[in-house]
Structures are given as C-alpha cells and as structure tokens.
Amino acid sequence: SDFKNQVEARLTGFYNGFQQLKSEGFKVDAIAPQGAIYLTVRFSLHGLKTEDGKTLAATKDITKYLLDEAKLAIVPFYAFGSSRESSWYRLSVGTCTLADIDVIFSSLRNALQKLN
User: Where are the alpha helices (DSSP H) in the chain?
Assistant: First the structure.
C-alpha cells in the first residue's frame, strides 16, 4: 500500500504540474490519473520552432526536443498504434521520486519557453 500511495502521489504531482503549465498558456495537457504508473500527456507543439530555428514538424521531432532540452523521456502514442502525428504521449512515473517532479517541471518549462 505504501508503494501504491507513492505512485498515486507522483501521478497527481505530474498531473498538477501539467495543469499548471497549461494554465500558464503552454500547449500541454494531461488526463487525470486513472491508475497504473502511467500518465497520458499531450504536447501540442507541431509547427513550433526551436531557438536555433528548427521546426518541430513531426511527433518524433517533439519527442527528441523534449528529451534533449527538458531531459524528459516519453513514449509517443504511435508506439501503441495511434497516428504518427498524434500529440499524445505516455509518461511513466515508476522511476522518479516526488522530489524529482519540481526539477522535471522546471526543465520542461524552460524548454517550452524556448519555443515560438
């Protein structure tokens, strides 16, 4: 039950973080946690440009950008049979700690602020 409570706290922490970013105007979203160790998140970043002028044209570009700039590893929904242009991802909270969440969202916010 302790592990379950820790996972639920991390899921809620990530969900709240995404809702905060969304309320700040970033093109992100998340579906409320529904169990397991995964959160369904959305990055609607197609067509935005990085600081060096590269366009995030495809989902794979967004996935790579988030990994490189925010150090956030996520799995695009096309890995599960969705369209290759889907903006939805699966994020696992299985290996992070509650303390990691603030650091992750700081890095993510910084990466998102670099886009235009």
Answer: 2-23, 59-70, 98-113
Q: What is the C-alpha to C-alpha distance for residues 84 and 106, in angstroms, rounded to an integer?
A: 28
| pLDDT by position in tens, the chain (length 116) | 898 999 999 999 999 999 999 999 999 999 999 878 999 999 999 999 999 999 999 999 999 999 999 999 999 999 999 999 999 999 999 989 999 999 999 999 999 999 99
d(CA 70, CA 67) in angstroms, rounded, equals 6
Q: What is the SS3 assignment for 1? A: coil
pTM metric for this prediction: 0.94
Residue showing tokens 């935005």: 48
Q: Cα separation of 31 and 37, whole Å?
A: 13
